[in-house]
Design brief:
Radius of gyration of chain A: 22 Å
Distance between the termini of chain A: 14 Å
Helix content of chain A: 10-25%
Oligomer: homotrimer
Structural class of chain A: alpha+beta
Number of helices of chain A: 5
Chain lengths: ~350, ~350, ~350
């Protein structure tokens, strides 16, 4: 059971050019294409006539034309032309999915199109704000999407999964306080007046003490956003003034593909040394390495679950944020199902 | 549910030599081998003793000998020898399937052996008639056999699936009249006193106007036969005198392998320039290219259907012949099932 | 349904070093590792917390540490440490399987650990007795384990499966008398005062007549042990005095992996020419060739069964030992299930 009335990332804008592109989201075949005015549309990737994937067809005059018998569909999913006959048969249509191009990603709404509210797209302003520099990748991952969420929200895996990078950090020693709102689960740690990490010392340009923070927020169904940084000690970052500091954002969006596979979009952005390509490259490489260690774990976990008839996990204290997040997601899904 | 009391093509005569050959037809394992007199026999490809495929055994004195314990079976499927004992246990037998070698193909009857009637083998005389020259191929195709039938009977896919060859032809502009008999669905178009296509102009050796025809006939479960040609305008071809014309036959036989795969045998024959190897080669290459475009479509269609819980296709006008053919096949299968 | 309260071979001692090793036995994931004192322990290969395979973790201070969140398990399967908290949650444990290292194999007890009785390990003394020399291999085989048992107990397949080696032997001409005890099915043939086979003539160092034997014993669920040899004619081998003879043992242990795959451990040992490496190499090569012919058959048989809805085999006379063995195994399993 997936949450449907929400935005998922469908891909990168550059993926959809003149040719239609077929993908699977939430177990459903979806075709993405650009209409005459260049906007991206998404339809059910299955012709209503003989069920050929429409992604095997082509875009013709802004319509999506099936590659089998040439039926044409507009961006609303309505069949607007059937070769060889003047009238379109009643009911000839495919499902449409609202799409928005924003923050250098394509966002798709898999639920009721009329409920699609662009205002619900999570705020990842740093993806295309010129005072920030962002990077990231797309990975196809062979696990249920929620396993990939879990590993983001649980910091205690770091010493075991990332022993050579994050794992050595003392940051995992204390449990964060988890906060829950109607729409999010979040947690954070502030370490006041401490020595900066080598990376941040270089970033902020000082060896003096700093106030450090590590904050994260989960927005169901599948966005985990991290806010990491430091500022000169006592400069007021904790109360909102980050002018004397540097910030690094990471975002993990996971779009379910099937029940045991997902689309993983991760991104990292920073607001310091933004013109230094070497810093960007190093940052990308470091996070890529860390996130790929996560992927190795969750794919192995999925294989283990495939071979498990009943999942009866024992929980530990550190699972609190994961359990809160799962509970909130479950609540969202129940609300949608009951409605 | 397959039609069983009918002939399917099992393969090419040259495939079955000294060694038994195992295949799957209608979901059932079948072994083909040659008996002492050189005729081809077909049995269940599963020893009645420990179920090893008999195709892993060998032919010994015209009997098929299992490769595990040496049980021997004759062409009727009866076990005639069990090593180490003088008596064959009661019930030791495997199913037999009548086979006929005709028109340079092997035909197999998957139903009641006693009902096998060689007279029901479709007439494809041009496959081995010396005034004709025929060519063709066998392809394993990853789709339900009926999808491959559908695409033969539906001419309106040509502009979209075969844009560079058939698709440009004006021949698809008018709907054919579909005719149905007790045993066939057929349709055809006659275009009287028209310019010949370049290919046929060369074939008939004139640039003058001709009467052209495109006729096809579907015989359940899975034979689609085409009759294409032209004759000098007004020479009486439409009423039966083709002496002033040239004819090209194509045949598409599809034998179900499993519910989502089939054996596709196609053939093309002509009665003009029969000694010109270059024409044969060009004809083969052209049709091979066209038919492989069909296969690309139906295999993609199958994948789409695999991911579709309920198939509720919308029909269009051009589906008339396909729907007639499906209906006739369904009637045949129902009759067999009720009997 | 598997027999559980019995010993299966889990692998070779050399396989389990510093790193944990994951395998599947009887459909269950099992991890093997060495504790601080070097003994091998076996646990469920699935952390009780988030179900990552423990074989992806590492051994730390003799405990098995999960590679995800660092939970540690001792050899009894009890979770003894959860990072970040002082108390281990109730119920945090994984299943344990008793393991014994003996005869240069690792033996695992897949049933009730308290019922594990080392005395029930089959006697294959010749595997590590210095007056014997033994060799063998491990193979992953793609068939249900009982198919691989069947082929051992049935000598009549030799002329068909092993035509170039065993098959030519006259030894298969006479049916053995099958004997059954509470715990075994066995059979044997004694051929008194006959010419020795070339191999045994060389082994015993004479061309004179010998008394030959071929004895085998099946111990459920999956051990087939052969005892083959000859002694000077009339020297009393049949009544127990083998001092004037030579003996060759082969053992076939099969551990179920899944319902259609198994772990096959075979071994061959002899008490003659024990220092002659060339004889060992030739013996190994010969049996390897023979046993791989068996594997080819049973894997093909499995594929055939996969495509068979109901297995209704016809039995022949030579199946007597196989049927006795299957019956005894069934009795063992029923007894265990009823208990």
């Amino acid at each position: 059971m997936y949450l449907r009335n929400c935005w998922y990332i469908a891909g990168l804008p550059g993926e959809v050019t003149n040719e239609p592109v077929g993908k699977i989201f939430l177990g459903e075949p979806v075709v993405l294409f650009r209409t005459s005015d260049g906007t991206v549309a998404a339809l059910e990737d299955r012709c209503c006539h003989r069920h050929l994937p429409l992604s095997l067809g082509k875009v013709s005059n802004g319509h999506l034309q099936c590659g089998y018998h040439g039926l044409e569909f507009d961006a609303s999913g309505a069949c607007v032309s059937v070769p060889g006959q003047s009238r379109v048969p009643p009911g000839a249509a495919v499902r449409r999915y609202p799409v928005v191009e924003m923050y250098d990603w394509l966002w798709i709404w898999m639920g009721d199109p009329d409920a699609a509210d662009q205002g619900l797209i999570p705020d990842v302003f740093w993806r295309d704000d010129p005072v920030w520099v962002a990077t990231g990748e797309y990975w196809a991952v062979a696990c249920a999407y929620d396993l990939l969420i879990d590993i983001q929200l649980d910091n205690t895996h770091a010493p075991f999964v990332h022993p050579d990078t994050l794992g050595s950090s003392a940051i995992t020693d204390t449990a964060p306080r988890v906060e829950r709102t109607d729409r999010t689960v979040s947690a954070g740690r502030w370490m006041m007046d401490v020595v900066p990490s080598p990376t941040f010392a270089r970033a902020i340009g000082t060896e003096e003490n700093v106030d450090r923070w590590l904050l994260w927020e989960f927005t169901p169904p599948s966005l985990c956003a991290f806010d990491i940084g430091c500022a000169m000690a006592g400069s007021g970052a904790e109360t909102g003034d980050r002018s004397q500091g540097v910030t690094l954002h990471t975002a993990h969006f996971v779009t379910p593909e099937t029940e045991t596979s997902c689309h993983y979009f991760w991104s990292v952005g920073r607001n310091y040394n933004v013109d230094d390509i070497a810093v960007t490259g190093a940052m990308h490489a470091e996070f890529k390495s860390i996130f790929s260690e996560d992927v190795e774990i969750v794919e192995a976990q999925q294989k283990s679950l495939d071979n498990t008839s009943v999942w009866r996990p024992i929980d530990v204290n550190a699972d609190a944020p994961v359990l809160q997040a799962r509970q909130l997601l479950k609540k969202f899904i129940s609300a949608e199902t009951d409605a």
